[in-house]
Amino acid sequence: MTTLYTFFETNGYVFEILIAVFFFCGWMDRRPRFLLRGCLAGAVLLLVSMMWTWIPFDNEWMKSGRTILFFFLCVGAVKSCFEGPLRQAVFYVTAAGAAQHFSFRMARTLLAVGDQYLKLSSGITIFMYPLLSVIFVFLCYLTFGRELRRKDVKYMTGSQTVLFLLVGMQLCTNVLQNLFDKYSTGSGFQAYTVYSLFDMISCLFLLALQCEITRRESEQHNGEILQHILYQQKQQMESSKENIELINIKCHDIKNQIATLGNRVPKEEIRELERAVNIYDMAFKTGNEALDVLMVEKLMVCENKNIRLDCMMEGKWLSFMKQSDIYSLFGNAVDNAIEAVEKLADEERRYVSVRVRSDKGMLVIHFENYYDGTLTFLKGMPQTTKEDKRYHGFGMKSIRMIVEKYQGHLSVKAKDGVFTLNILLPVDCSLGS
């Protein structure tokens, strides 16, 4: 029993950091033969820890060097077991190291308080420390790890300086701890408690800082994607406008040619041909050119997918908006509606409604369609149902960004199989410039 206790006392840090790494890195994409790789990585760390005890001299600087060495060994272990760039491994191992150090210090402090006031026996302390360590690491995961997990850091932490500072902050907590253990001998319980509080708060601040960095960089990354999408949609609007004008000219020529066929072609075939031509010769006259181009384009899509598109729009009230914003806002909203209704088996429910009107100085835009299934909302916005959420769901984000640009209000509701999107924009303004 004594030998086993000595073994874990000497090499316990390896097990603590591996548990923390499991919590903070376990969701990453795994490499082939993950289990074998993980066992080998753990064995290497344990072997290095055991060999470290053979070093003839042991002081606070050697302990600090050991901590730094194990940090980089953990980074290597994560890289060997999981997919992803090096900066992702460094970022997550930094968080795991902060969580491990916090749990270590918290468990030690609680046991020191218990020993000071409750006179706990050494036997209780031996079994309580590993239990408390695991509990506090898990609490760190619940508080910070899940937030980091929701953000994809493969394309984040692009600034090497920021990543270097995070690593430096995390390693400094261990170095300072070793120095404190060396030079605080005899300083008393109060000094130990004060330093422990400082140590734990530093770790929590570091984890909170990492969550904030991922949140900001995620928003910046999404913003760049949105800007790229808006630019592509602007280019698409110009192309669609030219194509529809060309189609209208050709349709006019074809109609003239149909009129000359006379009785040489059966009337049923002529009517079918005229109907097909009319689909491509449709013209919306909403009072807004961008909206006219878009709705003609979407009507063609709906005709091909057997979807009814019902529109009542006073496009003249959109004159204060940029044409590219109109095209993006209505295009994304109608595309989302089409995507929802085209999956419906009941043709009576394959229906999309769009309304645009002015009411008491406000522009009222209303979209409505049926849907099947369950929609999940986060902060009032529906979440994409596609598996790869990194590159989907930008349609609603784009709509929200445009609405906010014009100081409007966006509301979304899904109830009883009906999805409604309502937008209110102030008309008497010169926004979006």
Task: Tell me what you see in this structure.
This protein is of the alpha+beta class and 433 residues long. Helix content is 65%, strand content 10%. The protein has eleven helices and seven strands. It has helices spanning 2-25, 34-52, 60-81, 86-117, 122-150, 160-183, 189-259, 267-280, 289-304, 323-341, 394-405, and strands at 308-313, 351-359, 362-370, 377-378, 381-382, 409-415, 418-426. A five-stranded mixed β-sheet has the order 1-2-3-7-6. A hairpin with a 2-residue loop joins strand 2 and strand 3 (362-370). The longest helix has 71 residues, at 189-259. The protein is elongated. The relative contact order is 0.06. Residues 388-392 have low confidence and may be disordered.
Summary tags:
10% strand; elongated; alpha+beta; 433 residues; five-stranded mixed sheet; single chain; two-stranded antiparallel sheet
Topology, please?
Elements: H1 2-25, H2 34-52, H3 60-81, H4 86-117, H5 122-150, H6 160-183, H7 189-259, H8 267-280, H9 289-304, E1 308-313, H10 323-341, E2 351-359, E3 362-370, E4 377-378, E5 381-382, H11 394-405, E6 409-415, E7 418-426
Parallel strand pairs: 1-2
Antiparallel strand pairs: 2-3, 3-7, 4-5, 6-7
Gross morphology is elongated
Write down the secondary-structure element order: HHHHHHHHHEHEEEEHEE
How many helical elements?
11
Rg, rounded, reads 32 Å
The major sheet is characterized as: 5 strands, mixed
Q: Roughly what is the average pLDDT, rounded to an integer? A: 78
Given the helix and strand composition, which structural class is it?
alpha+beta
